[in-house]
Amino acid sequence: VMGPYVRRILCDELGAPANSAINCIPLEDFGGQPPDPNLTYATALLEAMKGGEYGFGAAFDADGDRYMILGQNGFFVNASDSLAIIAANLSCIPYFCQMGVRGFGRSMPTSTALDKVAKVMKVPVYETPAGWRYFSNLMDSGRCSLCGEESFGTGSDHLREKDGLWAVLVWLSILAARKQSVEEIVRDHWAKFGRHYYCRFDYEALEPRTAYFIMRDLEALITDKSFSHQQFAVGNNIYSVERTDSFEYIDPVDGTVTKRQGLRIVFSDASRLIFRMSASSHVRATLRIYAESYEKDPSQHNKEPQAVLSPLIAIALKISQIHERTGRKGPTVIT
């Protein structure tokens, strides 16, 4: 259903060429393609952007609540960075200039890039479990103005839901106000706030019992007192565990407690590993591993995320034994 909105708003109202709206005829089977806006599935857009002819590219999922941004030559903006960059540039958006900003929200697995912006802006950040309903409570109570998830969902209190087309319009407003390219805006952001290298690895269609026992055993391992003093040496990197937990959320609005929303390992250099299980169907399960590493030095901002994060991933695979216990050689999807 997203196609007609893209054509009406971006083409008819804002004057984008008609041929810039691709795959905009609604189809019940999504044209036989997975409707997820990420680098794994939006390959046609990525290839088009790599040619350098276009300065801005965006992909939406079928119902328009998620989006992905690409710059010239296929420069990719991950969802966590996108959320943080929008937060840092709210002065470019008339709505926020008029309404002000009361708070930010991000799901726990989303990178902490938003937190860096919030600290400078002196705006509170609410860290919630995955699932938009937690943001809705915050927005209804007037606590949150902008929120998002690493799964390419971003929204504000104008709607109470994630809104991919709104997020793309915000990006276009930022580009117009700053008169810079997508890549320049992102690199300026990294130079000011530091870069959060970030990646998510999905192990899909697992046997639920196997996934459950992996998570159960992992929780027992990392919440044992002895684990909090662990050090992991991978190549030239040494990671010291600072704290671990099974994430628990207390809703500041109604006091509802939501437990066991993912396992967290935070290292002394602020790197994070997160493990979370989600049901992908009635009979299969998905286990997700999230890795994050913060780098302040601008001279270190040009590396490939997977190269930077490979030591953390090695630790994650070692302690979870996911390959050995599932027979998998690697994740199904990397984003």
Automatic annotation (TrEMBL):
Q: List membrane-spanning regions.
A: none
InterPro entries given for it? A-D-PHexomutase_a/b/a-I/II/III (IPR016055), A-D-PHexomutase_a/b/a-II (IPR005845), A-D-PHexomutase_a/b/a-III (IPR005846), A-D-PHexomutase_C_sf (IPR036900), Alpha-D-phosphohexomutase_SF (IPR005841), PGM (IPR045244)
Keywords, comma-separated and alphabetical: Cytoplasm, Phosphoprotein
Where primarily located? Answer: cytoplasm
Q: Name one GO molecular function term.
A: phosphoglucomutase activity
Q: Where in the cell is it found?
A: Cytoplasm
One record GO biological process: carbohydrate metabolic process
- The segment(s) forming the Alpha-D-phosphohexomutase alpha/beta/alpha domain are 10-73, 92-193
Q: Does the keyword Endoplasmic reticulum apply?
A: no
Q: Which Gene Ontology cellular-component terms appear in the entry?
A: adherens junction; cell-substrate junction; cytosol; sarcolemma
What family is it from?
Answer: Belongs to the phosphohexose mutase family.
- Identify this protein by name: PGM5 protein
Which source organism? Cisticola juncidis
Gene name, Swiss-Prot/TrEMBL: Pgm5
